[in-house]
Amino acid sequence: MMPDVDLLVADSLIGVDWSDAPIEVRQATRFDVSTDELRKRIRRWETKFAAGNASATVKAVRSDWQTFFAWCDRTGVRAVPVSGPDLMRFLNDQVTLGRRFSTITRYVYSVRAVHTGAKAPDPTQHEDWAQDWKVLKARLRKGKKLAPRQTEPLSSADVHAVLGVIEGTPEGTGARRRSKEDERRDLRDAALLRLASDTLCRESELAAVQLEDFERKGDGSGWTLFVGRSKTDQDGVGAYRFVSNETHNAISEWCAKSGIEGGYVFLPIGGRPKREPTNQGAGGGEIEPPAPHITPDQIARIMRRRALRADINRRITGHSARVGSAIDLIEAGFSMSDAAYAGGWESERMVRHYAKKAKAGSNAMAKLRAKTANGMEPQN
């Protein structure tokens, strides 16, 4: 099976000639391979890497490599193999440019991955790497770039406010006449927000939802959504998420208005070219390919736009409803494990990170202050 996304690492080496690289570089890395052989090795590796990883991972490695290779080209550094000190110079330059720790660690992963494919020495095995890495982290800590930038949550209350704006669009005198596309867009976006809040799905998981993934619960109390391959489930074993009856009704209304009887649920509205039929049907006619679903980036833009219209001026992303629902669970007294399971996190670490503010209101000191405020003396 051909990969959806090409890495383009080997292509970046076309026309490169490192035969004049300083002899000390070749000696330091103990690597004596021609550029042609290097390209062949990387070509074999990148084909397998692209076929075996999610497209988001492939795109991230490709972007990281392009950034690193451009830096090498500007500074006259050999990209493969790169020495440990040169890689550290690159990382320090990226810190100067304002990159955060999560991005820095991704750069290291991507460069090491290419070196693995090239069967080249690992630059992070340099004798000074561990100490230099500590110094780099100290720089990040000082610049407050060590902790990941937290996605701002869209709580259930926020989603309710956004839905109020969507579903309460004025129709009276002076209101702009809404087109059928506007009405369908409102239905789609409301269904999308409801589903994101119920299921804690990632934006990529929301984009991939199909009508066949829903199944009604036996007791009629709601529905389940089957989530196939995801960031933490690359083998596609799958998991199930809860969907309320209200959310499923919203999805059904959107699908009925849009003529969706199967396949992807969340489709683009307007402005897209007509699909060209590509396959031959049994009766000689041509069959149209499945309609393209909206992308994760489009989901993020939808959530951001809808939040702004409800006067929610925060850093909203495609994961904001996911984070908001996780915090709602913690504030309601559910455990970290419950929240992690509901959102498909592999561990409680990220839930714990998201819930820091929520837990501050229920920790031991908060309970003590609540008791003393009610006239109760703390026990010795």
TrEMBL record:
It comes from Ahniella affigens. SUPFAM superfamilies: DNA breaking-rejoining enzymes, lambda integrase-like, N-terminal domain. Keywords: Chromosome partition, DNA integration, DNA recombination, DNA-binding, Plasmid. Pfam families: Phage_integrase. Residues 272-293 are annotated as: Disordered. Residues 149-367 form the Tyr recombinase domain. The keyword DNA-binding applies. InterPro entries: DNA_brk_join_enz (IPR011010), Integrase-like_cat_sf (IPR013762), Integrase_catalytic (IPR002104), Integrase_recombinase_N (IPR010998), Tyrosine_recombinase_XerCD (IPR050090). This is Tyr recombinase domain-containing protein. PANTHER family: PHAGE INTEGRASE-RELATED (PTHR30349), TYROSINE RECOMBINASE XERC (PTHR30349:SF81). GO terms for biological process: chromosome segregation; DNA integration; DNA recombination.
